[in-house]
Design a protein that fits this description.
Length: 241
């Protein structure tokens, strides 16, 4: 699985029919299912509010850092009303390890207030409502819908965007366009888990700077294969998780 065997140009997919691309995308997803049977949301949460807040806090930091921070956060401010009434300076002190803590503290207070004022203190179940909350975009909304409410959604984070482009599913840089194009390739019932599998693959194998192509389970299906480390042993040593 190394060398130039899979070194095809990324724009090769321009010659691919929509049906062929759909079939290939579903084969890729099945292969990633085999590689990552434990794929899941890696943020710790016990209810929709905790997942919503944790996802907002995960911007520009790691899930590990967020998971180390949220126990104190949710212990001190366990519901939307408590968050709405929180002293921003106290929140900043708790959120400091996550980076951009001032903006994140404002988002936590704003989300709490919006939930109390407009949604009875509960996290809404519609994407149209979720994206009206401070600091919440479609990515965060789809994380909450898919993992807290069981509503299928595609989460276009940096990993999903990168892999969707490398795999030839899209040429767009727009997350909304990528969400739509990826959604058209996969069965709706698979959207949430397919997102997790792509994220796992991006974190563990298909790295941004140098992917481990020689140890990739979908190299034969990837038009970008060959851009990273192609030696099987060296690539295997790169794998994480």
């Amino acid at each position: 699985m190394g060398g130039a065997t899979y070194a095809r140009p990324v724009d090769a997919t321009l010659q691919e029919s929509p049906l062929a691309r759909t079939r290939r995308a579903r084969r890729v997803d099945r292969a990633l299912t085999g590689r990552y049977p434990d794929a899941r949301c890696e943020l710790d949460f016990r209810n929709p509010l905790e997942l919503l807040i944790a996802t907002v806090l995960s911007a520009q930091t790691t899930d590990v850092r967020v998971n180390a921070t949220t126990p104190e956060l949710f212990d001190r401010w366990p519901d939307a009303a408590a968050m709405a009434a929180a002293d921003v300076r106290d929140l900043e002190d708790v959120l400091r390890p996550t980076g951009f803590y001032r903006a994140k503290a404002q988002s936590v207070v704003g989300i709490g207030a919006a939930l109390v004022e407009r949604f009875g203190g509960q996290v809404p179940r519609r994407i149209e409502d979720l994206v009206t909350l401070p600091g919440v975009g479609r990515k965060t909304a789809n994380v909450v819908l898919g993992n807290a409410f069981g509503v299928p959604g595609i989460t276009v984070d940096t990993h999903v965007q990168r892999l969707s482009q490398r795999l030839g599913y899209t040429t767009s840089e727009d997350p909304v366009v990528i969400e739509a194009e990826l959604g058209a390739l996969l069965e709706r019932r698979e959207w949430t888990m397919a997102s997790h599998r792509l994220i796992f693959h991006g974190r563990r194998t298909c790295f941004a700077r140098r992917p481990a192509c020689g140890a990739c389970p979908v190299a034969a299906l990837c038009p970008s294969a060959g851009i990273g480390e192609n030696d099987p042993e060296l690539a295997a040593a790169m794998l994480k998780g």
